[in-house]
Amino acid sequence: IEKALIEGDIQVADVPAVWNAKMKEYFGLEVPEHSAGCLQDIHWSSAAIGYFPTYTLGSIYAVQIFDAAKEAIPGLEEHLKKGEFHVLKEWLNKNVHEQGSLRESGDELVLALTALLKDAAHIYGISDLLKWDQLVTMPKKAEDARSNQTSPVLGALLEELERRRLTEDLSFVLNPYELANIRLAHKAYRSLLNASAKPSGAWVEARKESSFFKFAPFLEGQVRLIHQSVFYKIKGGIYEEARKINKKARASLGLPDEDECYKGYYQKGLIPFIAKIAAENFQHENAFIKGDFDIKKQTEFSHKFPTQMEFDMDAGRLDESTHLFCSNAHLTDVRLTTRYALGNFQEGITSTIHDTGHALYEQGRNKEYLNTPVSQLLSIVLHGSQSLLRERMVLLSKPFWTYTLPLLKNQFADHDNFRAVTVDQFYLAFNRVEPTLIRLEADELTYPMHIILRYEIEKALIEGEIDVADIPALWNAKMKEYLGLDVTEDRLGCLQNIHWSVGIMDYFPTCTLGSIYAVQIYTQAKEEIPDLDDHLVKGDLLVLKEWLNKNVHEQGSLHESGDILVFHLTGKPLGGSFYVKYLIDKYTTIYNL
């Protein structure tokens, strides 16, 4: 009955009838009332749902232990005939009671596991620093050497994790954080197998020449790695059980399927709305954000944002890089990157605030369980939501620019662009809808279409429906269908993102799901902090950071998924329709539709 109840095969209301039927089948007895049947035990009332199997296992233990005692004490039965129990007691004390939790489970196992996982975290930190250096400061000719340096480090960790793999069912001796650590340890396998330095260098070179086919052989290797990885091979055990539990939990909470979000809500809801705005043949003025903006001044201005957003610069740094990323060697060493465009200062501001959101997640992690998986990111979806929340809900808001526009005017005092611009004009310019080939330059409304395009290609590639060689033509066709744009060269199409070059083949859907998380989390934050807009008008982002630290960042990987965390936080299931409604409502107002 417990098993069927936990796995969702029966409902609570079914328990009495099932109980009575089984009592009749097993013992030939009729149950006259509930107190003599399903209400006779207290255990379920205190959530001890997995308790009863211990009785049978206990009986098995008892028989085998007593047999061992009789072998070790040949005259045991003679002692019992005389009413002498001390010899049995002494044997049991030595061989059972004094052993405590020394074997198989308990504190020693937790300590050993924690030590292993902390070592893993430190090695990951080293790997992360190597990757940061590779993408930010490393000389071009050091590519092969870096690959040779990275592989042994990650290989050593993989070997140690394999050697000390844990598969026991420890649900009765570990607390939720410790259980999560065991579940999450298995996820290390996939990330290790995907680690590679050479393909990212190949991507950089192919991008310079705008030739996808120079990169294709390396991408084919990454796809083979993914198909061969443990992620696709693990059957049974904790990992498989965690997937089953998560699937049941999502279904019980009414959480959506990915395809339902990407194809159902966005394609059907957003494509017609984007076309409707285009048909209006009207655009908000944004010429004042164009022009030559000194990179040094942009850098100075952008470097103010992490501090304003309460990022601890003594425990991190901000650098410039071709592709945005956040390196998290440790919460005391969090490195974020940004990039600038001479002709558009918006890119530098947006990039910096976006990656600061990632960095704040890292600095806000659970310190009590630091360096164990449960303190680390629950999912890249949730991680992405924290950057998108800052970029979309904060940066694109009118309260934020009420405070920031005077600072911007002062920073670029030699520009005539901003002198007569109002907060309302600036807000409308920053929220202008204009399809673009580049994902990172996309506006909030058209951005999901960039993700759908990538999601569909990734899914087809991983599932073997297309080959790597098919990607450019398929990419270009979808860009034309979804946004009406022609891709003139690979650099502006399928070569614009670094993710595939390092084996991250399931990243892009996180951007859209992250947007859904961001909207629902920020909506909840505004409900719990009614004067949040007043804080933003003053440039005060501390209250938002503290709320997110408590409700999101410090939760780490305690929950089975980000969907479940959002449900517990907001009391509402994750909803693609909620996000689409947010977008349509916002841009209907902005464009007076």
Quick structural summary:
This protein has 26 helices and 3 strands. By secondary structure, it is mostly helical.
Account of the protein in words:
- One of its GO terms (molecular function) is metallocarboxypeptidase activity.
- InterPro entries: Peptidase_M32_Taq.
- This is Carboxypeptidase.
- The protein is an all-alpha fold and 593 residues long.
- Among the domains are: 98 residues, no CATH class; 212 residues, Orthogonal Bundle (Neurolysin, domain 3), CATH 1.10.1370.
- 59% of the residues lie in helices and 3% in strands.
- It is built from 26 helices and 3 strands.
- It has a 3-stranded mixed β-sheet with strand order 1-3-2.
- Strand 2 and strand 3 form a beta hairpin.
- Helix 20 packs antiparallel against helix 21.
- The longest helix has 30 residues.
List the helices and strands and how they pair.
Elements: H1 2-6, H2 15-27, H3 53-72, H4 76-81, H5 86-95, H6 107-136, H7 143-163, H8 176-185, H9 188-194, H10 198-209, H11 212-228, H12 237-252, H13 258-279, H14 295-302, H15 304-308, E1 316-320, E2 326-330, E3 333-338, H16 345-363, H17 380-395, H18 398-411, H19 423-430, H20 447-462, H21 471-483, H22 509-528, H23 532-537, H24 542-551, H25 562-570, H26 576-590
Parallel strand pairs: 1-3
Antiparallel strand pairs: 2-3
Helix pairs in contact: 6-7, 6-8, 7-9, 10-11, 13-20, 13-26, 14-16, 16-17, 17-22, 18-19, 20-21, 22-25, 22-26
